């Protein structure tokens, strides 16, 4: 066991060296000024060098998931490849954007899934995925704290609700429980629900059964949130066996409740229920996708209530910006769909009015997956109205 750990470390070191070389060579796709400090990479989350929270988490990504995904999944999950999502890209920025959309849990479970694409995926990846996740999990916790400390309390990574008592006299009919995530840690302007009932088999209560976890914005101006992985906590303990919602991945941008797992099986937790049981929900990622400034002032929050008066290309293309989140997976130097590479300012400026038109075109929108929230589109409107400044 000791020696396999050593081999793992050596593989790790080789992976890290390859990454650095790739960065130095990747020039074109990696022109974002605010990320220039990413090249180094580190498995520890740190803002000691003056990095923003986003820059720091991308640095960790650059030396954990990125080299693995590029080496192992890059045959298919790249621009023009047959895989869904370009997280295998040699360039860290489109890779990270695609990775963030899918989520660490789903990526990890597919990496070790022997029925996905053997021989690339399967149990042979388990040791490396476990090691990557040990760094990534620790970094995510620090990243969440970084966002809170820097005043972006609504731009949260991991969010856990308060605990709510199970409905009185809970029987075998589903009842909907509701949480106001304004009371969550850290707070988020969303409302969550899940249906719960007693799970009964052959007349005997087996525990709790859950279905239909939903999320909705509390009000129309709350922005847009990426959510990945819902964990259920019963009496403060994580229900480890209830993994039904670990692959949840959705964007919440309306006040209409979105079912995060429509069509999947119900989650069942085997236990002896008590009227005093309390339930909490945890989101491994619940992150504003409308944050724009890489260096927010301490008092600024990421709500979209105030219309911004000045928006720059640098903000839109920075990690977390609209272009980085929603466009570069298809509009980078290595994957310029429609001939458009948004990672270069000159190209974005020339295409500015076209960008604005397509982002607001209900019938033929960009991104192709559907029109973005009003808050995100407004940022681009303001950018174009001001002459598309760099
Ligand atoms: C031989 C090609 C190939 C390889 C190699 C490959 N994939 Fe895939 N992957 C696909 C295809 C095709 C799809 C879409 C259809 C599907 O889900 O099977 C996909 C889909 C996925 C999805 C679902 C994406 C989404 O948005 O729902 C994930 C996650 C994923 N792959 C992870 C991986 C990981 C991690 C690796 C490397 C360890 C990998 N794949 C290697 C071809 C590949
Ligand atoms: C899933 C891939 C995908 C994403 C994500 C995406 N696009 Fe596109 N885009 C395309 C494709 C494919 C075309 C070419 C076909 C077309 O025009 O519909 C295109 C074309 C365009 C064009 C027209 C280019 C021209 O010169 O005709 C603009 C402008 C554009 N996209 C802007 C954006 C913006 C801005 C975003 C993000 C808000 C975005 N796209 C996100 C795939 C994508």
Explain what the structure shows.
This protein has 390 residues and is an alpha+beta fold. It folds into three domains: 2-149, no CATH class; 159-288; 313-385, no CATH class. Helices cover 32% and strands 18% of the residues. It has helices at residues 2-25, 53-63, 65-73, 92-102, 104-111, 126-149, 313-317, 322-326, 345-350, 352-359, 374-385, and strands at residues 159-160, 164-165, 175-180, 190-201, 204-217, 225-234, 237-238, 249-252, 258-259, 267-270, 278-288. The strands form two sheets. Strands 1, 2, 6, 7, 8 and 11 form a six-stranded antiparallel sheet that branches. Strands 3, 4, 5, 9 and 10 form a five-stranded antiparallel sheet that branches. Strand 6 (225-234) and strand 7 (237-238) form a beta hairpin. Mean pLDDT is 80; it is low at 1-38 and 291-306. One heme C binds at residues 326-327, 329-331, 337-340, 351, 354-355, 358-359, 366-368.
């Amino acid at each position: 066991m000791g020696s396999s750990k050593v081999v793992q470390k050596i593989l790790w070191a080789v992976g890290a060296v390859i990454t650095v070389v790739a960065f130095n060579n990747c020039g074109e796709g990696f022109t974002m000024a605010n990320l220039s400090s990413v090249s180094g990479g580190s498995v520890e989350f740190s803002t000691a060098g003056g990095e923003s929270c986003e820059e720091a988490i991308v640095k960790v990504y650059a030396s954990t998931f990125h080299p693995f995904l590029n080496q192992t999944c890059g045959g298919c999950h790249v621009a023009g490849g047959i895989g869904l999502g370009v997280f295998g890209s040699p360039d860290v920025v489109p890779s990270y954007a695609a990775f963030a959309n899918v989520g660490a849990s789903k990526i990890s479970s597919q990496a070790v899934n022997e029925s996905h694409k053997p021989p690339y995926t399967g149990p042979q990846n388990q040791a490396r995925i476990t090691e990557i996740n040990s760094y990534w999990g620790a970094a995510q916790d620090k990243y969440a704290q970084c966002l809170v400390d820097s005043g972006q309390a609504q731009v949260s990574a991991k969010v856990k609700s308060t605990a709510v008592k199970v409905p009185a006299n809970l029987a075998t009919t589903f009842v909907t429980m509701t949480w106001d995530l304004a009371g969550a840690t850290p707070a988020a302007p969303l409302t969550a629900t899940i249906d719960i009932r007693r799970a009964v088999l052959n007349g005997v209560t087996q525990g709790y059964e859950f279905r239909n976890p939903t999320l909705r914005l509390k009000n129309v101006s709350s922005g847009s949130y990426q959510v990945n992985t819902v964990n259920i906590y019963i009496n403060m303990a994580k229900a480890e066996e209830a993994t039904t919602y670990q692959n949840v991945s959705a964007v919440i941008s309306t006040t209409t409740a979105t079912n995060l797992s429509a069509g999947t099986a119900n989650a069942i937790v085997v236990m002896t229920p008590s009227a005093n049981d309390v339930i909490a929900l945890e989101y491994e990622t619940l992150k504003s996708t409308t944050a724009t400034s890489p260096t927010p002032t301490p008092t600024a929050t990421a709500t979209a209530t105030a219309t911004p008066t000045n928006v720059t290309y640098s903000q839109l293309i920075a990690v977390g910006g609209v272009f980085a989140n929603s466009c570069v997976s298809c509009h980078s130097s290595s994957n310029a769909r429609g001939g458009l590479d948004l990672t270069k300012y000159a190209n974005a400026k020339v295409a500015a009015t076209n960008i604005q038109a397509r982002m607001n075109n209900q019938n033929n929108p960009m991104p192709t997956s559907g029109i973005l929230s009003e808050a995100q589109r407004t940022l681009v409107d303001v950018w174009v109205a001001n002459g598309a400044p760099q």
